[in-house]
Structure formats: C-alpha cells, structure tokens
Amino acid sequence: MPKSRIAPTGGLQAKHLFAWSLVSIISNMMMIPLNALIPAFYAKNTAIDLATIGIILMAARLYDAVAAPAVGYLSDRTRGPLGRRKPWIMAGGVLATAAVYFLFNPPAAASGGYLLPVMLVFYTAYSMLAVPHSAWGSELSRAYSERSTISGVLTFAGVVGLLLFMGLPLLLSSPLLPLFPTAEITPPMLKLLGWLILALLPLCIGAAVIFAPIGAAAADAGPVTLASVVRSLRINRPFWTFASAYALTGLAYGVYYGTSYIFIDAYLGMADKFPVIYATAAIAQIVSIPFWTRLSQTHERKHIWALGIAGFGLLLTLRVFVPPGEAGFPWLLALATVASFANAASQVPQMAVLADCIDYDTLRTRANRAGSYYAIQQFVLKATLAAGGGVAFLVLSLMDFDAKAAVHSRASLNGLALVHTGAPLVLFVAAGVLLWLFPLDRKRQHIIRRRLDGRVTSSVSLPSGASPHGS
Question: Vertex 225, ends 221 and 231: CA angle to 5°?
Fold first, then answer.
C-alpha cells in the first residue's frame, strides 16, 4: 500500500491525525467569528442595521445551498495523485485569503452591498475547505473506536480554533503584548485578527496536504453521478434521522451564537469580557474532549450526543439569572465552563455518526459518496445556523431592539433573554429525542463494517480482470 494511503480499518497514527486536523483548526478560526461575532460587530460598527444583516445571512445561506453540495459532488468525482480531497482544500485556502481580508476589514460606511458579496466568497471558500476535509476524515478509518477517535480529534481541533481566536484578544491586551487597552473586539482588533488568520492559512493547509495520508475509500465502484446521489439519499433512512436532528441543533446554535455577543454586551454589560468567557469555555471543552471521546468508543455515541445537547440547552437558560456587571462575571464564567463540558459531549460523536450513515449507503449502493454526504451536512449546518441567527435578528428588530443603543428598556432586554435562551432550549431538547432514536447502534455498525471489509478483501483477492459477480 502506498505511503500516502492507510488501511480503512486500522493503522492510523497520531501524526496523521494531527496533520489532518490543522485544516479544521484554521477553518474554525474563520467560521467561529462569523457565527458568534461578525453579525453583531457589523450591526454595532458599520452602517448596516439588524434587519439587513439578518436578510443577508439568510440570502448567503441560500447560495450555500448550491455551493456546498456542488463541492461535495465534484470532490467525489475528482481523481489524481493527491486524491479526491486535497486539491479542493488547497483551492479553498487560496479563495479564503480574499474572503478573510474583506470580512475582517469592513469600512465604517459598509452597507449591504459590501457585506453580501464578501459573505458569498467566504462561504464558497469555507465549503471548499470543510466539505472535502470532513469526507477525507471518514476515509481515514472505518473501525468503530478509531472512527470515534477521529471524530474526537475533529472536535478538539475545532475548539482549538475557537480558543486561538478568542485567546488572541486577551494576549493582545495583556501586559505581555499591550497593543490594545481591553480585549473588546473593536475594528482595529478585528483587523489584526484577520491578518493573523491570513498568516496561518498557508501553514495549516500546506502541512495537512504534505503530511496527512490520502486515506482509502471503501467499495468505490466508479464515478459518482448526480442521479445516484439522489437515489442514495432517498433510501438512507438513518441519514434522514441524523439530518433532522442536525437541523434542529443548527437552528439552536444559530440563535445562540448570533445573539451571544449582544446578550453579553446589552443584558450583562460585559462586552470586554466576551473573549475571556469564550476562551475559558474553549479550555473546558478541550479538557473534556478526551473523556467524551473515550466514552464514545465504549458506549452508544448517539446517546452521548443526545444527552450532551439537551444538557447544554438546559444549562444555557441559567444565563438569565446571572447578575449584570462585574458581580456576575465569576458566575457567568463558571456557567460557561460547565455548559461547555456538556457541549463537548454533543460535539464529539457527530462526525462518527455521519460516517456510519455513509457506510450504510456504501453497503447498499456499492459507491463512496462521502463528499456528497458531508456537503449536505455542511449545508444543513450552515443553512440552519444562518436561519437561526437571521430569524433571531429579525425578531429582535421587530421588538425594536437597537444594538447601537447605549441604554435598553427592560422589555427589550427581556425579549433578548427569551430569544437567546428560550428558543435554543426547545430546539436542543427536540434534537436530543431524535438522536436517542437513531437506528444505527454499535452492533449494527459493526455488521456493516464487517461486510464492507469482506467486500474489499474479496475484490483484492480476485485475479486481474475477474468480476466479483461472476460472468
């Protein structure tokens, strides 16, 4: 077997996972501020109002409905010495350079005409990074425990990306590097963060392409066609359960992330504490990921995901009881730490559960459509994140909430609290119920893996030119 490939059921090394995970680190450094910070930043620091930002978010996601599946479909059909996924990731890195520069450097007079095209370029670049990268991960191994490890590493890398982005403002305002008076995300701060991301982009992508193995696609029966993708989706019932639960969690996260900065700024009066709160939460997730990864290797990962997401929703509602100002900061920090521990339980199993859905499809159709499936997953995630955030902004606008106002009425703050905590709770709990009922458990996945491995072994043992189905 060439050094660039690994067996689909074993032999994965730590250095392979580290190199592969670098793409996730840098792509999360790009996407996390878009979900948690950029909309509120533009509302507060540019000429664009909340309603316009909400409409642009949803319009950009409608575009992404075409971009992400197209990238996945085309990456499934790509052939070459670098495999299916690496060429797309390299091209995505180039496009991301322009997207990050303009997104993180908006002029004060920026209007919707500025933000919309920048968002379209950004989502195209992100799809070219995230969709092939996730499909690549499913091809690194099919073993149950290794697949849980890969999923855990992906979650870990994403949290590292969050920690790096949120930790940099703390460093840049600390006595070690006092470039800014506080850690608040001001226009100069955001601009510098954009430049740091641009410096890391080629380093992370280059290392992944050079040092991570291509992987081995199971039971690849030839070119993937659009018609075959549609037929595959129609008969894959486990995937529809996964996608429904994933859509509910995406909507919940969209509301939560989209209103987090506004809630911490307006409701709690802690805008300057935003980076330290999320950096602390990221550390809590990093510490907890090995625990949840190990648990996912030995227990039903669908149950771990279900309990984690419902627990996170319940803990989120406690934010409304945190006192505003300095007195409430320790309480908010403690709550963020505990909630992040629970949230990691919902993040770790995701990639492994979707990889099981892909194996189910491969067993039934004898084709590898990992890119197409991860493209749909990315579309569901990004569409629901945008829909959740966009609807939340529109609702706040209808409530006459003004993100630029220095003083807010009690009614508008209560409305903000209801949007920020109430809607996510309902959506998270509903998703948890669906995930608990997900049909592919450990026993069924083991049967699928054994049959796929037997199919590959049988194919390899055939004489040259022989057909596995006879003449």
Answer: 90
Kindly report, residue by residue over 345-386, the tens digit of the pLDDT: 888 888 889 989 988 998 888 887 888 888 888 778 877 887
More confident residue, 313 or 231: 313
Mean pLDDT to the nearest integer, 379-403:
83
Q: What is the pLDDT of residues 22-41, one digit of tens each?
A: 999 999 999 888 877 888 89
Q: CB neighbours of 324 closer than 8 A, spacing ≥ 6?
A: 267, 268, 269, 270
- According to DSSP, residue 164 is labeled H
**C-beta of residue 208 within 8 angstroms of C-beta of residue 441:** no
Handedness of CA 227, 228, 232, 235 (dihedral sign): positive
What's CA 302's distance to the chain center, in Å? 18
pLDDT of 459 over the 80 cut: no
Express each pLDDT in 232-284 by its tens digit: 888 899 999 999 999 999 999 999 988 988 899 889 999 888 888 888 888 88
Quickly tell me which residue has 């509602």 as its tokens: 317
Nearest to 426 by CA among 318, 313, 302: 313
CA distance 163 to 152: 16
The pLDDT, as a whole number, for residue 471 is 26
In contact, 213 and 4? CB cutoff 8 Å: yes
The SS3 call for residue 254 is helix
Q: 3-state SS of the chain: helix, strand, coil percent to 5? A: 75, 0, 25
Q: Are 306 and 435 in contact (CB under 8 A)?
A: yes
d(CA 226, CA 232): 10
The closest alpha carbon to 214, from 374, 369, 4, belongs to 4
DSSP conformation letters of 110-122: --HHHHHHHHHHH
Asked if 162 contacts 286 with a C-beta cutoff of 8 angstroms, the reply is: no
Q: Which two tokens stand for residue 28?
A: 């999360």
